[in-house]
Amino acid sequence: MEADTIAAIATGLSAAGISIIRISGESAIECADRIFCSKRKGFCLKKAKSHTIHYGYITDQEEIIDEVLLSVMRAPNSYTKENVVEINCHGGITVTKKILDLICRTGARPAEPGEFTKRAFLNGRLDLSQAEAVIDIINSKSEIALKNSVNQLRGNIYKKISEMRKKILQRTAFIEAALDDPEHINLDGFSETLLEDIILLLEQLEKLIYSFDNGRMLREGIKTVILGKPNVGKSSLLNLLLGEERAIVTDIAGTTRDTLEETVLVNGIALNIVDTAGIRWTEDTVERIGVEKAKKAAAEADLILYVVDSSAALDENDKEILQLLSGRKAFILLNKSDLPTVIDEEIQDSPDHEIIWISAKNKSGLDELERKITECFFSGGLSCSDELYITNQRQKTSLMEAEKSLVQVKESIENGMPEDFYSIDLMNAYMELGKIIGESVDEDLINKIFNDFCMGK
Q1: Among residues of the chain, what percentage have pLDDT more than 90?
Q2: With CB atoms counted within 10 Å of each terminal CB, which end of the chain scores lower, N or C?
């Protein structure tokens, strides 16, 4: 357990109604007591009961710094399982920093990024998957992302992984016991039983690994790129989705020369929308750079919205864009449906991508587009939000390594190999799954994970 006491601002450092400074460590209460003056005569903070709130002032010798509410949480019943004090002061950069500086002069030191949650993990308050869920909650971009993160914080990943590790450990222990005492423990028929367990474990691992793509999009949002030739209504579509005039719209082709990124919620799903420069051949150096950036964005997109002017015929630029859509999740949006249609039949009969008629001018077709996007991801809606999604690459990598080891066990059984061949691969799977919940990770990885946290968390 860490011996020193740490302190940090736990709220955003800006003008606000309330700011919170958090202190954690063995001497947290003593540090706060040196600068806290209660409104109650004769009150001593060191004698305060756990989970109580006290009204008074933060003082620097004779000077009153601010009027505050101070919360006391004694170990082990706190976020870090250490003594914790939280000072609720008036929001503002100057007063908040001054109180933090004062605390650090009384015996605490400034906390490192994520150090409160790191201590919660090291002290057994959270497993590693729960600790990672904390940062996901903070960064949630939608209700479904928040719900998935809360499920992880409640220990859903820990429960699933622990069940699989327990099964693996039981089977490994039985093999080792039988090898040590073959006279009393019989392995006849064990391979068939183990194979059934391995097949079930592989199914569970495959489901978790498969959930990563959706989990990543839950966490980060769906990268959605709007493509099309100049002046077909791409920026108008962006403004329509946002519900505000964010992108400049003119009748001049090539108005948008760089990518413009915004986030919008569609039926509870976060879309990170990238409006791009119109794709066409041009001698303009600046516009040509914008076109290349548009193509690069399309190559990295989870979803492409290809906007077509339905009142104009297709040309070579459209054919180039259609090639960019090959093998990708994409919708073809026939815009300007309020005008006479002259679009080629070849695009209306596109077998690879669904066609949606819209009019950015009349604001029509948006409901249909939002419905189709919802159907395209997360099994068609938010009803699947109770499912467990893996949300970061570290967890996915460990799952895939565990899967490889269990596949090796399966092949050994099917090839009739002796039982002692199974143990090494079973334990490799056990160790890889342990990395997800933090039971077999090194200090460098722990430090790397928590360095991504904000300072006061």
Answers
A1: 42
A2: N
Q: Which amino acid is at 64?
A: I
Which residue from 296, 221, 223 is spatially nearest to 258, judged by alpha carbons? Answer: 296
Do the Cβ atoms of 165 and 432 come closer than 8 Å? Answer: no
In the numeric block, which tokens belong to residue 152?
């992880």
Coil, helix or strand at residue 117: helix
Q: What is the DSSP letter of 163?
A: H
Q: Give dist(CA 184, CA 357) in Å, integer.
A: 74
Backbone phi and psi for residue 394, each to the nearest 5 degrees, phi listed first: -60, -45
DSSP symbols for 417-452:
--GGGHHHHHHHHHHHHHHHHTSS--HHHHHHHHHT
β-sheet bridge partners, residue 225: 274, 304
The model's pTM is 0.77
Facing residues of 88 across strands? 20, 69
SS3 93: helix
Q: Which amino acid does the sequence have at 134?
A: V
- Identify residue 58 by its one-letter amino acid code: I
Please give the backbone phi and psi of residue 262, each rounded to the nearest 5 degrees, phi first: -145, 160
Residue 454's closest CA among 90, 116, 143, 152? 116
> What gap in Å lies between CA 177 and CA 17, rounded to an integer?
63
For the chain, the residue count is: 457
Edge to edge, what strands does the sheet with 109-110 contain?
36-38, 52-60, 63-73, 84-90, 18-24, 6-9, 109-110
What is the 8-class DSSP label of residue 45?
A: G
pLDDT in tens, 179-191: 888 777 887 888 8
What is d(CA 389, CA 397) in angstroms, rounded to the nearest whole number? 14
83 CB-near residues (< 8 Å, 6+ apart): 24, 25, 26, 27, 28, 29, 73, 74, 75
Neighbours of 408 (CB within 10 A): 18
Taking only the tens place, the pLDDT of each residue in 154-187 is 999 999 999 999 999 999 999 988 888 877 788 7
Question: Is 249 in contact with 239 (CB distance < 8 Å)?
Answer: yes
Backbone angles phi, psi at 212, to 5 degrees: -65, -45
Residue 177 tokens read as 């016991």
